[in-house]
Amino acid sequence: MNWSQFRDRLLPLKPYWPAFLAGFVLLMASFQLIRMDHAVREKFEGKRWRLPSQVYARPLELYQDAALGLPDLESELKELGYVKASKVSSPGEYSIDGEDVTLYRRPFAFFEGPEEALLVHVKFNGKTVSSLTGTNGQDLDLARLDPLKIGGIYPSQKEDRKLVQLKDVPKQLIDSLIAIEDRDFYDHMGVSIKGIFRASLTNLRAGRIAQGGSTLTQQLVKNFYLTSERSLKRKLVEVVYALLLEVHYSKDEILETYINEIYLGQSGDNAIHGFGLASEFYFGRPLNRVTLDQAALLAALVNGPSVYNPNRYPDRSKKRRDRVLELLLEANKITKPQFTAAIKQPIRAQSSQHWKTNRFPAYLDLVRRNLHRDYEQEDLAVDGLRIFTAFDPIAQIASENSVQEFIKSQGRTGASLQVATVVVSESGEVLAIVGDKVANYQGFNRALDARRSIGSLAKPAVLLSALLAGKTLATQVADMPISVPLSRGKVWEPQNFDHTSHGEVSLLRMLTQSLNQATVRLGMETGLPAVRESFRRLTGFKDFPLAPSIILGAVDMSPFNVAGMYYTIFSGGYRTDLRAVRGVQDSEGKAVRSYPSKIHKEFDADVMHLMHYAMRSVVFEGTARSAYNYMPMDIHAAGKTGTTNDGRDSWFAGFTGDRLTVAWVGNDQHLPTKLTGATGGVAVWARIMAKVAHKSLTLKTPESISYQWVDGQTGALSSADCLGVRYLPFTKRTAPQGIPAPCLNQEPPKSPTAAGSTTSAFDWF
């Protein structure tokens, strides 16, 4: 059929063409309406919000004899937004009277389950909790604070919100919102002709756009479904969506969604959505505890959060808030006395650093990595998970402040330095991380990613290998020049830091004075395979080279990896993967995953006791004794300094009774710093230890360990009343046998310090 024939057949139908066209348009409009209706219902009934995962710190646990000082508790309460009051009467308040603290713990849904609000009385004795009682004076075994929210894992839009149910929203907020934004909300079907007419009259009188005619339903559509485009087409779509919402859903459902969706401010680059979060952002309290004047102010913000920001424009926001109160009075929603009292209230909103987005980026980086094997990034960003971690705000802030103090102490050279620290608990949980000398820096995380030569931090691995081979802390080794043949005819001739040889020394002195020549000689005698095996067992890594240079730490590791290596010693021979995450809940508060410790026993308790004794000596009399320039003498600790060639890296890895801390100082260009482990890493580490309460290190003596008096020069069995003797631990299979040699020079008998005694460990030396 050609075109002429086709046209001739259509001509008789010409009178019906308008009807056909109208039908076609109606059909297309119907299809479009059905598509829009589907879009409205799918989003409203499905996953309405892209909820970021919320990351929480550990809950601070209070119990008798807890290592915690009153300043630490108050610091944590301030971080949590608790308010200091003369008399505690409601959750979120605390008071201080001397060394006594009364606090009203807020209710919280912990990972193990929800707990109600709790009134607690805490008494302190220095840096220790002396007693813990409840409301009626009864003793409490344990009370824990609600944990600090330390950040979130956000979608690309970086929206933040806290969902609330309509039944939990104060009536005065609902009344305020309807009064100022849509007084006909319960009477219209999504679009208010009366509201549009009223807004038009107001705008004509003002000669400008002073009032909008959009209903709450239309505002919800604009925020929930549409873009910010200003056009007639978008406005028509908005009207259709609003009508469809009203057809399918009740007013309460629409209002609840609006309350959780509306944009109410900005925290850094994070958008604050919903009244649930806004009440905490502006007032530091949950939505169900806002006062009348605060509810009116929240409603006032809807019209323009930046225009009426109470922190930046208090006078402007007060004027808008007072207008809301006037409307409430006109509508008989409040009484005249209520109005008078509320309108007298000043604007007391105050933004806080607690609302900075991801204040602790280095730690959150570790949280993401811990979760990576179980969750995709998209799941973490939109599923509203609640992630509970071991993060310790007290340890973190102490670490950050210590780093700042150290950098300042270095004067002009501090500008070129960088610092990284890792703090770990006795259970292998990471408590705090500093990845840069600048707090809150979100760039390169040196604690996790800066792989640097560890230097003398390797020496405990060499000592451990020798002890496993049957040597003792009293075994003598020559600290004399040594030449180690390498490949291609090269020779390695290591020197001591002071370029001095010290003759025959004990393995204990070798470690405490960090003698390179003696360590290399011992490592070569013990055997490189044995040294490499000790590294493997300490770290869980297998890629250590079979080269003499590993004896003096020619191994690149991050501070986090070093913390893992030293944790095996700290824990008494048990290796574990250091972790930040304790557990994860879904958006409904149901526990969906936990992260228990996975422990591998690598070494027996007797050899670890010898290691603890030797590393404790490093702090008391060796290269780390400068730690006591910054911390009290009664803190017993153990550790090892590390310095690489030309002072490019300064390390210290040390532990007390309940925490291990690693500190690294260097620069990103690998240039000399003129710092040693003692003047860099130790100075940072000791400052941290001085700021946090913790248990002092005590040595528990296993049954397989015996202490003997030996000559400090030869290691031979001796008597307590001889000069120059030491009281050293030995395993039963390596303890010196026979009769103590007689001594010519004597001194008054010593009283050996038993393990766990309160006598100062200095009595040992």
List the helices and strands and how they pair.
Layout: H1 3-10, H2 17-45, E1 53-56, E2 61-62, H3 70-79, E3 83-84, E4 93-97, E5 100-105, E6 108-110, E7 113-115, E8 118-125, E9 128-133, E10 143-144, E11 149-153, E12 159-161, H4 171-181, H5 193-206, H6 216-224, H7 232-248, H8 251-261, E13 263-267, E14 270-273, H9 275-283, H10 292-301, H11 314-330, H12 336-343, H13 361-371, H14 377-382, E15 386-389, H15 393-409, E16 418-425, E17 430-434, H16 446-449, E18 452-453, H17 459-468, E19 476-479, E20 484-485, E21 491-492, E22 503-506, H18 507-512, H19 516-526, H20 528-539, E23 556-557, H21 559-570, E24 574-576, E25 581-585, E26 591-594, E27 599-601, H22 605-621, E28 638-643, E29 649-655, E30 659-666, H23 681-691, E31 705-711, E32 725-731
Parallel strand pairs: 1-15, 3-4, 12-14
Antiparallel strand pairs: 1-11, 2-10, 4-5, 5-8, 6-7, 8-9, 13-14, 15-25, 16-17, 16-30, 18-23, 19-22, 20-21, 24-27, 25-26, 28-29, 29-30, 31-32
Helix pairs in contact: 2-7, 4-10, 4-11, 6-7, 6-8, 10-11, 11-12, 15-23, 17-19, 17-20, 17-22
Q: How is the CATH topology of the domain at 159-354 named?
A: Penicillin binding protein transpeptidase fold
Shape: elongated
Question: What is the beta-strand fraction?
Answer: 15-25%
The low-confidence parts are: 751-765
CATH superfamily of the domain at 159-354: Biosynthetic peptidoglycan transglycosylase-like
What is the structural class? alpha+beta
| Name of the top-level CATH class of the domain at 159-354 | Mainly Alpha
Rounded to an integer in angstroms, the radius of gyration calculated over CA atoms is 35 Å
Q: Tell me the span between the first and last alpha carbons.
A: 114 Å
Give the name of the CATH architecture of the domain at 159-354.
Answer: Orthogonal Bundle
Percentage of residues in helical conformation:
25-40%
Number of separate helices: 23
- Using DSSP, what is the number of strands? 32
Q: Give the spatial strand order of the biggest sheet.
A: 11-1-15-25-26
Can you summarize the main beta sheet?
Answer: 5 strands, mixed
